[in-house]
Each structure stands twice: as structure tokens, then as C-alpha cells.
User: What shape does this take?
Amino acid sequence: MDFVMQSSDIGKLAEALAKAQAQMQGAIKDSSNPFFKSKYADLSSVWNSCREPLSNNGIAVIQTTDSGLDGAIELITTLVHSSGQFIRGRLPIKPVRPDPQGIGSAISYARRYGLSSIVGVIQEDDDGENAMNRSSNNSNKSNGRISKNQVQQITNFVNQLGGNHQDFIQWLQRTNPKISTYSDLPSNYFQPAMEALNRKAAKLNGSNVQQTAH
Assistant: This one.
């Protein structure tokens, strides 16, 4: 069966969602990223910013999962109006680790991203994410993936900093949810990723562990 993105008519849903969005506030960044010690809006914060406006306008949110290709999981987020009209989106995710903790972490991230995207909740980026966004929006850059040598550079740098690879990948996913390993990084993400690691290095040990991207 084909995946149906929306009901044949979404007029009532669109009207209700517009009213709900006028009542929504931005999600508060109240959780810390363990790799960069930065703040971000977690799933609870995103829910708190939109639950009441959605409910007051007859809109419910349903999030389910399905199996995807190559071991991936698909999160399906559906907005349903009391009239029966609906719209939905799907987000493929691939856990960094295929154990319960890794799968749960990936689903939690996808739920936050899927919810904020479909209802229009804004989450402010930190400086590192802004750098990633500027790079990814630069049309002069290549759309290919980083090289094996660059993957190794990032891996070695994170190891040298004593960091957790899953934490760094989750930080990268905040600007590109399709990233599940360093090999998934678009080529225009390499320089910002190295710059972010250099900033962490500077905070930890000064310039002694800084590396040059090449």
C-alpha cells in the first residue's frame, strides 16, 4: 500500500493549525548536549510548547514506527484534526548502535525532530549548529560525502579529546537527521565539524590538540 501523506481535504486542519501556531511559543532549550555542553530543546520541551495550542484547536499528534531499509527505522508523525483530516511525515533513522539504548535514543531524537517540524515549533541553534547550517546552505559546496581519510580524521580527533562518538553524532544530527555515522557526513560538513572539535579542544587543553582539516 502506498504511503498516504494527507487526507483528500485538509482545509479544516490547516485552519486549526494556523490558529494553534499563533498560540505556540518557541521550545525552551533546557537540556544539555554531553559532547559540547550546549543547551537544546528536548522532546518534553517541544511538547510543552505545542500540546495545549494543538489540543485547544482539535488537533492530535500520533507518532508510530515502521521498519525501513538496511536496518533503519522509520518514524511516522501524523497530525489528526477532529474532523478526521490529517497530514503526516516520515523520517528514516538508523541507530548508531543496534542495542535497546541506541534504538531508544534514535527514536527519541526522531520524535523531537518530527514533532517540531510538522507543527512548526522553532528551536534556536547554538553557534556550532549555525556554522553547520551556513555550510549546508552554501550552494558552491559539493553534495558528496566526506572521504575515508576525513572520516578517520574526525574519529581520531574525537578519540584524542576523550569524547563519545555517539554524543558527537547526535550533535551532528541536530542539523542533519540523516547522519548516522561519520561516513554519512556531506562533504561541506567536514570543515565545520573540525572547527567545532577545535573549539572543544581549545576549551579543554588550549591549542595543543588543535588539528587542521585537510
